[in-house]
Specification:
- This protein is of the alpha/beta class and 225 residues long.
- The chain contains 5 helices and 16 strands.
- It has an 8-stranded mixed β-sheet with strand order 1-2-3-4-5-6-7-8, covered by helices on one side. It has a 6-stranded mixed β-sheet with strand order 9-10-11-12-15-16. It has a two-stranded antiparallel ribbon with strand order 13-14.
- The longest helix has 16 residues.
- It is globular, with a radius of gyration of 16 Å.
């Protein structure tokens, strides 16, 4: 698989992966499956251990992304951001092939094809090598949707939002109560505590930043679900 080292946040369905290199971590984004799902491979540069966010589809492509040589990273954990089937089609194959543990929020665990090895709640942390990721529960798109936050000590924050936040608005909700819940969590747990230069990695499509989206919060509220 070809991996571009110029990272813009845009990848094409069926196309190349794109890698961002930070001091402690590499972040590689790949579009998989017919719904243009994003899978993110996070690799600790010190320990060469990896964590995958959403084994959504195309297990062969994800395997190629991890690599096949002796220097490939050891995939320790696969995190599923939420229960919708387009985000876990390759979960069993990828976790099984790599001997990786799986993690999800308990409220979204039951529909998954393999029971999670770890259940994570709001405020928990996950490790990838020496790097720590914070779990943020965002209630609304699904009951157990989670985001993962990496606070880069030598740069800006990096937030993986699943389908809870995209460029242009929150993820889909099916009733006004869920919409209000998601907006409340986004405002209090994301926009209310993280700076504008926080980079957003969504479950589909292109990346964005909190600064680009913050002026639209009132418009999203008014638009409703």
């Amino acid at each position: 698989m070809n991996i571009a080292d110029t990272y813009t946040g845009h990848v094409e369905p069926g196309g190349d992966a794109a890698r961002r290199t930070l001091d402690g971590l590499t972040i590689t984004k790949l579009s998989v499956g017919p719904m243009d799902n994003n899978a993110y491979l996070l690799v600790c540069r010190e320990e060469n251990e990896a964590l995958l966010i959403d084994a959504a589809n195309d297990p062969e492509r994800i395997s190629d992304l991890i690599g096949h040589g002796p220097d490939r990273p050891a995939l320790r954990t696969v995190v599923t951001t939420h229960q919708h089937p387009d985000h876990w089609q390759a979960l069993g194959a990828v976790a099984g092939a790599n001997g990786a543990n799986t993690a999800a929020h308990p409220l979204d665990a039951e529909p998954l094809p393999v029971p999670p090895d770890f259940l994570v709640e709001h405020g928990d942390t996950l490790k990838v090598g020496t790097v720590t990721l914070e779990v943020i529960h965002l209630r609304g798109h699904t009951p157990g949707s989670i985001a993962l936050l990496y606070r880069d000590p030598s740069g800006h924050a990096h937030l993986f939002t699943g389908d809870s936040l995209f460029p242009g608005g929150p993820g889909r909700t099916t009733n006004p109560e869920d919409f209000s819940s998601l907006m409340d969590d986004l405002e209090s747990r994301i926009f209310g505590v993280l700076p504008d230069d926080t980079w957003i990695y969504p479950g589909h499509g292109d990346d964005t930043t909190l600064g680009a989206e913050r002026p639209k919060l009132g418009e999203w509220r008014e638009r409703g679900w």
